[in-house]
Amino acid sequence: MTKRIAIVEDEPELAELMRDYLQQAGYRTRIFDNGATALAAFRQDRPDFIVLDLMLPGMDGVMLCRELRAFSDVPVMMVTARVEEVDRLIGLETGADDYLCKPFSPRELVARVKAILRRPRQPELEGAEFRIDKQGRRVEVRGLAIDLTPTEFLLLSTLIEHPGQIFSRAKLLDIACPDDLDVTDRAVDSHIKNLRKKLAEFFPEADLIQSVYGVGYRFELP
Known about the structure:
The protein has helices at residues 12-24, 35-44, 61-69, 85-93, 106-118, 150-161, 169-176, 186-200, and strands at residues 4-8, 28-32, 49-53, 76-80, 98-101, 130-133, 138-141, 144-145, 167-168, 209-212, 216-219. By secondary structure, the chain is of the alpha/beta class. The longest helix is centred in the last third of the chain and has 15 residues, at 186-200. The radius of gyration is 19 Å and the shape is elongated.
């Protein structure tokens, strides 16, 4: 079945350019130039993917993505001309799967859309590479338990449950140490380093926890 992609962008020329390239790649597209109108349409008919501008009339991209995540896990790529790190983090922490900064190559847009659509939205843990035992606070790889600290379990289980989603250091710190105000987000780097070493024992040639420059980390299934 042909995938349907919604383009939420109020710059007509850019919206049409994205539409042309996505249609050439075999996708069906629909353009919205207003955030509130787009959200109302998504409640009735959910697309397979959303390309979402950050700055929109009616409702901005951050608010739209937050509202969308209340009823749908459709993949979202945030597009923005505001390249400050805070905007990137805000977009990704509202549930966006990726971001693209203007100006960008339409070919890169198509390539990223294809890559995200190939990702499983949730890993099939039972019978697959990973199994998460939340009651026992364990993660198993191919039936063997990884030796994890409580903090490492929280970080790794969160990453595994959201493959491909980018998490900022601040977000991961909030997940791992919600009540410890004295811990800096750089502590996350140390935990990630330890997790990579432990995962390398099972996957020596794969980098499962990937760094996203200037943003944070994401987990890619092997």
